[in-house]
Every structure is written in structure tokens, then in C-alpha cells.
């Protein structure tokens, strides 16, 4: 865990004037009754050309007049033609975003923050555990790994939501299920299933214990509601996983995204700069204030 | 100290400097006093508006570099759904600050560290670059002052382009610290002269050290969970006065203000004492009560900041304890922590 300031006087500083890039909404996909995925293109061809990011990084998306809000980039860095973000309607900015139509222009600043440890993941078995809208950052990583499939050993995706209707990326869930070299398990909370539901019924940690994945040579990446992560970590420990090879992402309210506005810190760790991706064993050493 | 360039000027140096700079068309901020007696740095156009004797200004320098509310962006939505973004940045005009205290100048060091952390904050840095800081060493610290407890000094020269000793009732001695400071001296022309060789700076003003930040940090390292946080925040109204008046507090919010098809994106001061500061859209709040928020304030200044930037985020100006509506006293709390 980084405890020191990463910058030195010699390092070139990146000028930041808080002006966002203009992005056109190319496509809107309704994921659930309250969640939409927006596919965005840079209006400026040069910006599109220059833009690079890594899975796990986030940006600040803005509707002019409503303000900025922070979301991860939910598309894969291997798909360079666009970026996508999945947004649950919760507050002012997200409500305005949900009012937007294809063709509208919104703002984007980023990418900010660290990313998933792609280098450490090479050659390993990958276990993705997601809950609800928490699948968004995992989706970026899952497609990133699928596009570089030969670099990784087994891939397993465990995903759950409260109800069937709350599952996001339904088409992609099917695609992953049909892939020969991906193991999938989808679950809904008890009572969240319909008679047609063919997946699991139960909370994500229970299904994880039932699946009994082997901790050997495996890296876990989990993302979802805090309560799910808490019990997933308990289950992983019970299955002899080391939390040193488990990663998650934290989300805190942010304004600047670059360590200046002073609100996203957990202890001496800034979610925007030291995260959003954290090793689970490191999180246990932080003040429990997230 | 041997290498430093020293100049001398008359007791009236502040007024001469204001007149010389104003005559050269340079924007000047100097100490003025309102009818109610409040002393503050204000834009002046003549030396008649300036006072020469005061303990410290009501506000720290922060708001000159990080204004209470500042436009980051202007937008206008066009007919075809396009959006025009502005404003175009205007060339920055030179500004000289005269007569701030060493603690307030030293606080710029902490702000620089934050606003130059990997990303250079353009709106902040533009204002920093255009500004020359001329500080006035303290000969009579106020009762609430505690700069010597947090690594400062009544005669500290940190982030002062020029540090002035004396003045008001005695001849002034000017210590030049930077190229900006040299330029300032040139502008004063014949109202200043190089100090004779062997001139010594005045003996440092004594100010007793009231606590040891190392010991405070030692306790903070171990006591994230403690009744101290509840007991010492019960009176806190969460009004934010302490951080708005703090020279090093820099937390901000970014909001849009819309008027039909156009508007502004603004950066406004924010404060960790506010309940909404960390509230998630989901309703979850990582700092759900005033005790957690008070803990963040102290931890950020005396633990997180030293860990990330090598020093505490406090310059000991005493404004927070002097101005708290309910008598919350940071200094007393730090002394309490130290005694534990």
C-alpha cells in the first residue's frame, strides 16, 4: 500500500483546468428499470485518438447545468472506439443523465485513479464476484481479459442481484454463459426469482461457498454493495483464499477526482488517487470508514 | 541567513510601497481597517487606505488563490444540441500582497503541495504565479497564536518573497527570498537601500511551544476509535467557520449553476464538518455523525497530511479557536491529546 506521496519535484505535473471533454451519446441501453448504459464518443477526433485508460479507472461525467458525478468506465480498454458508463438513477446528475437522448452532448474528465493489476493477473485463474451495479467495473475487466483470453488460465464469473429484473448486462451475461472457456454462476436473492429463472437462488457469498472455487493460483476481483463484499471476504477466507490476492474497488463521494477536494480519503488513502482499486488485505488495515 | 539579501527602509515603508506599486499600475492588496474595526487585506489604490499596526488580518490568504466561489467553466447549449465551453483564459495581471503574517504565507506551502500533487491545478497556479507575497514579521504574537508548536515562527520566511521586520514605529528591514522579491525591491526604487554589511536580523520573537505535533500524531495513530471524538465534538454546530477561516483548509465542492440554456460550473468552499460532505447518493455516509467529522478534521491535519506531505496542515494562526461560536478550542484539544 502506498503511504507516500507519489509525486516528486522532477515529475512533470499534468495541468488540470477542470474543463471536460465533450462527448456525444452514441447509444443508450436500458439495463434495468433504473439503470442505463451510455456509449460515448469524443466530439474531438484528436482527443479520441489520445485517450487511453486501464480497466478499473474512473471519470467524472457531467450534464451541463446539473453537475458532475463519478462513475467507473464500464467498457474495456481493448474496445477503443468508445467508452461506456452504466448509471443507476440516484441523485440529481444521474436523474438528468437518464433524461438524455442519443446524440446529446455531455462532459467527461478522466481517466483518473489506479487500475486492476493486469500484470499480476497474467497466467492466473481469475474469479470475478459481482453484485448489482457493481458488475460495471468488473465488466470492463472481464471484457479486457476475454479480449486477451490466452494470457489467463480459468475464468469464473459469479454475479448476483436482488431480483432477476435487477441483473445488469443481461445480453452479455448470456454471451459469457455460452463461452466454452468461461465458468458462470448467476444468482438472485431469495424471492427475487421468477418461475422461469434457471440460475441460482441465494446470496452471493452462499453461492460462492457452494461453488467451492480453488484458491490455488487464483486472483479474485470483487465489486458490489459493501455488505456483499464484507461477507464475500468472510467466505473467501473460509475457502482458504488469501485476501492478498483479492481486489475490490471503493467508491466514495468525489468532486475533483485528483486528490485535491479532500473528501474521499479513508485514513491516509485517497480513493481517487490510491484507489479506486484496493487489495482486500490492505483494506483491512485502514480505518473502517468507507 | 548569511546569503540573504537585506534592504532597509523607513518606518513608513508600507505606505511608500503602496504608492510606488499603484503608480506603476500594479494591483495591490494591503491591510485596511473597516469602520467596525476589522482588519483585512483589501485592494487599495492609495496609501491613505492602509494601516500599519495590527495583530493579524481577519481572513487568511487562501481565498486569494482558492476563492470562496470561483468559475471553472462556462457553458452555453446551442440550437443543434451542441455545447460551447468557455471562458478563454485572460492574461494574468501582476498582484502584490503587502503585510500578511508569516503564518499565512507559510500556509501557501501546504496549499501548493495539494494543488501541485501530480496534477497542477491551473486556476490555483495562475493566481500563485502572478502574486508576490510580502509578509510582515510578528513582534507581538496574539494570545491564540501557536505557530512555534507546528514548525513555524513569528519570523518565518517560508513562501514569503519578501519578509519585512519592524516598520510602523521603527525603521524596516527587508529580507529578500526570491526573484519575485528582488523585482519588488526594484519597484520601490530609492525608498529602499541595501542594508550595511553585517546587518543582523532582529532576535526572534519568543513564543512558547504549546504542544508537540509528534506526540499528537503518536496518539492519533492509535486512537481512531476513542470516546475523545464524541466528547470533544458534542458542542460542534458543524457550521464550518473553523475551516473557512483556516489558512490551510482547502476542501471544495464543484457545482453547476444553470440559467436556462447557459450556466457556470463553480468551485465553492466546502468543509468536512458538514453532514453532506461525504454523503453517498445511496444514503450511505462514511462519516455519519459530528464525532466522525471532527475526527476527520483533526486526523487530516495532524496525521494524514504529515504522512502524505511531510508536515502538519496547521500554521498555528489561532483563527479557529478565536472565532468558534461555541468555544471549540483546537489548541486545548491538542494539548489534551498530548497529555493522554
List keywords for this structure.
heterodimer; A: 290 residues; alpha/beta; Elongation Factor Tu (Ef-tu), domain 3; Rossmann fold; 2 domains; seven-stranded mixed sheet; six-stranded antiparallel sheet; disordered N terminus; B: 340 residues; alpha+beta; four-stranded antiparallel sheet; 11 helices
How would a textbook summarize the main sheet of chain B? 8 strands, mixed
If classified by CATH, what would the architecture of the largest domain in chain A be? 3-Layer(aba) Sandwich
Structural class of chain B: alpha+beta
Based on helices, strands and strand pairing, what is the structural class of chain A?
A: alpha/beta
Count of alpha/pi helices of chain B: 11
What features would you describe in this structure?
The complex is a heterodimer of chains A (290) and B (340). With 290 residues, chain A is an alpha/beta fold. Chain A has eight helices and 16 strands. In chain A, strands 11-10-9-8-12-13-16 form a seven-stranded mixed beta sheet, with helices on both faces. In chain A, strands 5-4-7-2-3-6 form a six-stranded antiparallel beta sheet. In chain A, a hairpin with a 2-residue loop joins strand 14 (265-266) and strand 15 (269-270). In chain A, helix 6 runs parallel beside helix 7. Chain A is globular and about 50 Å long. Mean pLDDT of chain A is 94; it is low at 1-8. Chain B has 340 residues and is α+β, with helices and mostly antiparallel strands. Chain B folds into two domains: 5-194, no CATH class; 213-339, no CATH class. Helix content of chain B is 30%, strand content 23%. Chain B has eleven helices and 14 strands. Chain B has helices at residues 13-23, 62-65, 102-115, 122-130, 179-188, 213-222, 227-231, 241-244, 290-309, 319-323, 330-339, and strands at residues 5-9, 27-33, 39-43, 69-77, 83-86, 95-100, 116-117, 119-121, 131-136, 162-167, 170-176, 192-194, 252-259, 262-269. In chain B, the strands form three sheets. Chain B has an eight-stranded mixed beta sheet with strand order 3-2-6-9-10-11-1-12. In chain B, a hairpin with a 5-residue loop joins strand 2 and strand 3. Chain B is globular and about 65 Å long. The two termini of chain B are 39 Å apart. The model of chain B has no long low-confidence stretch (mean pLDDT 93).
